[in-house]
Design goal:
elongated; alpha/beta; five-stranded parallel sheet
Length: 182
């Protein structure tokens, strides 16, 4: 299932859900309950900033329109803060009007969704966002020959393209089947 794949791929990811309406927070939590993510919540823009500074989530689902500090203001503060700017922010809008989308883009958000949130789209966007973060990690150029053996006894060889905190990239003549850790 989608939830099982998400749980395996990003079990340590921290998501901050921000909405002044408990109903929407509960809906998002329900959609994410079996993903393995660490779920944090905030009910205001001010609380979202405090949590973001304390915990540094990997991704935020941020409501655009809230009493007090709106989501676009929160997004601007986060994107202007050198210690927080890498947090991936998906803005959530109630109406999806053109002016709302423009506010999201001008605030520097990385994506947006329209309420009511579609579960499948939400899970796909989160997965895509977290995968983009891994691909954007710094790479260390390195060249080395590698050999491997799969669980069913097949062997192969190739050479590395580079290393990153997210894994090892290998160039080889034949495509690799996805290997599962033991």
């Amino acid at each position: 299932s989608v939830e099982k794949r998400l749980a395996q791929d990003n079990a340590s990811a921290r998501l901050l859900l921000v909405d002044d309406a408990e109903l929407f927070l509960e809906l998002e939590r329900t959609f994410l309950q079996r993903t393995g993510y660490q779920i944090l919540t905030a009910r205001s823009g001010e609380e979202a900033l405090r949590v973001a500074r304390d915990v540094r989530p990997d991704l935020m689902l941020l409501d655009l329109n809230m009493p007090g500090m709106d989501g676009d203001e929160v997004c601007r503060e986060i994107k202007d803060d050198s210690g927080l700017k890498d947090i991936y922010i998906i803005m959530v809008t109630a109406r999806g009007r053109e002016e709302d989308r423009v506010r999201c883009i001008e605030a520097g958000c990385d994506g947006y969704l329209t309420k009511p949130i579609n579960r499948v789209e939400l899970l796909a966007r989160i997965r895509q966002a977290l995968n983009e973060r891994v691909r954007s990690l710094p790479r260390v150029p390195i060249a080395m020959d590698v050999r491997w053996r799969t669980g069913d006894g097949r062997e192969g060889s190739g050479h590395t393209l580079n290393l990153s905190a997210g894994g090892l990239f290998v160039i080889c003549e034949t495509p690799l089947a996805r290997l599962t850790p033991h």
